[in-house]
Amino acid sequence: MEKRLLLSMVLCLLILLVYQSYVERQQAEWKAAQQEAAQEGLDEFPEDLGMVDPAGDVASQAPTEGIRPVEEKVAQAPQDLQCEEVIVDTPLYQAVFCSANGRPMRWTLKNYQLHKPCDCPVPGFPKSEPPEMSEGGAPAWVERIHTQGPEEYPLALEISAGGNKRIPIREALKPDHFRLELNDGEAPERITFSGRDSRGRAVERTYTFSPDSYLVGLQVEIAGIEPALRQAGLAMRLTERIPEEDRSRYTFSGFMAFIGDGLEKEKEVDPGKPLYYNGNVHWQGFSDKYFLTSLLPVDNPVSSVNLEQRHSADGRAGLFISRLIYNIQPHLDGDRARFAYSLYIGPKDLDVLRDTGYFLDRAIDLGWFEFIAKPLLVVLKFFYRYTHNYGIAIIILTILIKILFHPLTRKQMESMREMQKLQPKMQAIRDKFKDDKERLNKEVMDLYRTHKINPLSGCWPMLLQIPVFFALYKALLNSIELRHAPFMFWIQDLSEKDPCYITPIIMGASMFLQMKMTPAAGDPNQQKIMMFMPLIFTFMFLNFPSGLVLYWLVNNVLTIGQQFVSQRRQP
Length: 571
Description:
Elements: H1 3-42, E1 85-89, E2 93-98, E3 104-113, E4 141-143, E5 157-160, E6 166-168, E7 171-175, E8 179-181, E9 189-197, E10 202-209, E11 215-223, E12 233-240, E13 254-259, E14 262-266, E15 275-278, E16 281-287, E17 291-297, E18 303-310, E19 319-327, E20 332-333, E21 336-347, H2 350-356, H3 370-387, H4 390-404, H5 406-421, H6 423-432, H7 437-451, H8 460-478, H9 502-517, H10 524-530, H11 533-541, H12 546-568
Parallel strand pairs: 1-8
Antiparallel strand pairs: 1-2, 2-3, 3-4, 5-6, 5-12, 7-9, 9-10, 10-11, 11-21, 12-19, 13-14, 13-16, 15-18, 16-17, 17-21, 18-19, 20-21
Helix pairs in contact: 1-8, 3-4, 3-8, 4-12, 6-7, 9-11, 9-12
């Protein structure tokens, strides 16, 4: 195999290994620079701005006279808060609210099972743990609220008044009914929680639920706004603890927001160093590999986001808190203010997010080659509609990609054969000018020109396929469509690793066979080193999603077929 081609294959492997970590490191450095610049801008304002938006767009000019500072712990509801369950049951989810404050306690997605065991039929392999079950004996659903006690329930309200003055709106509310069931085809229904807060203001929360959408409307109305607060901001909090099992170096779990035309992401936030985001906030919230919990401003002229993280004493990640902040003034009518939001708690399914709108489809971050990955995902789903099996859809998609790149692959093989024919002459040149590198390079280039061979022609076809590989890699790695999707036999979840490790081993063997069939050229020592590549890839793919391994395996088999046909046609 020609030297430059070997180097290009090594480059492919290195890019695969460092791509994710490199991008995350670059984003972290950029975010640090942005936050430093924001902090410098904050220093231009009075010290009492505190947690308010550093650009001064939200509540930055709020008068502090008459506003009593409140310690953070005052904003927390007591642990023994008496909550009766207010249950909303739809075909898509079940939401349970606390009757005392109108905030959600649990939110389960009914179309997504929490765990699906994948047993290996080969003797000697351990059996999977049985799936977690609900109290009624049905499979447990995915839970999207991870909090520790009532004080962490999401959608708490605060007044952002500057100078670290976060004034909690401590409501004592009652629902107009305790259970709501919606069936397919029915009209949207509402639940209203009404009452007063600790300062006597009348507060109303109205949720609007639809049976066919994960989007929930939320309107908050507060009456009795004091003059001192009318230039302040109203913050609605989202809270989340990222479970340890959702943390991975290959996928993202953490804060995510789409602001302006850019996607903001944070896996960790330094304690005591909150982050600020200003601009046209389309949505903000928390995302993991497959699901999104987000709060959306509705018809709001000015909004900003504040993000912090509180690490727990046991060293675990702790609690994320994001605040979506509105100016109160534009929403006032006398001493009464109305604020509109939408809440999306659901899957990161491309079709569902696009139908929902609000740029929620940008939550599916497919990396640098997103413009390739999303069409590939659309084609994959198209094939699934006819095959009803994502494993078969992956095989068909791989064949289609192989057909599209067949001219490039054929050109690569022809170039490698031409290079192989020149190996005796090249070896003679190396032996003759081994002590004169400059003359050696000149003679080699003259040999290429004489035989009209471009030494890079065998590399470019492979390099041109790298973006497609990475795009498909990201699409398969993050596609919720593959979650719990069965293929056949022992592979019952294409998003998880092969429980028997059979497909990675076959993939490694196919890669070894492919390299043995490739025309050998170049330094014999390099050839020996490259023979370790199948072993390296095998170990690397052992814990990759079986859907991705299936793609790579089928791709190898098709390449072997191409090489076999090409060699049979050689004169």
